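Researcher: Let's do a round of design. I'm pasting the structure tokens now; please hold your answer until I've finished.
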């Protein structure tokens, strides 16, 4: 029987902490102004709408009543907040997972309606990076343009976040 040795980076659970982590987001040093990325696509379902309005309390007639007679358009519109949170979910899961420290500021414009059955995706562009004086962090600003399956821009927003850096 051979004894095993552990490296200084190995924890009591046997996981070597020096190995790269799958799904780890970007530290600010890995980004540059003008860098562009796109998110995955996501088709919004009736279940997404029902669960979202149930959790948030957005029980407005246009969202809860199919065929609401006072609606400005046919179909099943979804709250702009649902569109925003789905895109932010993609960004969280990929770009800032484990490195995003805080959302500092958000400016948003909703340009066109999104309905159940629409497929959305976003283009993310890094527009500014400002390193801070504390712990290698930086304030990173991005413009996020959300498009539907027809290529129409349905939302645009600018997000300013605090991101971790390398020590």
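Researcher: That's everything. Go ahead.
Model: Designed sequence:
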């Amino acid at each position: 029987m051979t004894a095993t040795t552990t490296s200084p980076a190995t924890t009591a659970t046997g996981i070597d902490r020096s190995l790269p982590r799958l799904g780890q987001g970007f530290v600010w040093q890995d980004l540059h102004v003008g860098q562009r990325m796109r998110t995955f696509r996501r088709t919004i379902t009736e279940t997404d709408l029902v669960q979202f309005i149930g959790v948030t309390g957005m029980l407005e007639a246009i969202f809860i009543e199919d065929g609401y007679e006072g609606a400005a358009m046919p179909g099943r519109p979804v709250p702009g907040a649902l569109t925003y949170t789905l895109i932010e979910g993609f960004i969280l899961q990929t770009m800032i997972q484990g490195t995003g420290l805080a959302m500092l500021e958000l400016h948003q414009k909703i340009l066109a309606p999104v309905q159940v059955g629409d497929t959305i995706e976003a283009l993310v562009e890094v527009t500014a990076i400002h390193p801070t004086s504390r712990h290698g962090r930086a304030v990173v600003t991005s413009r996020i343009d959300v498009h539907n399956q027809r290529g129409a821009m349905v939302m645009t927003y600018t997000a300013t976040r605090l991101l971790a850096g390398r020590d």
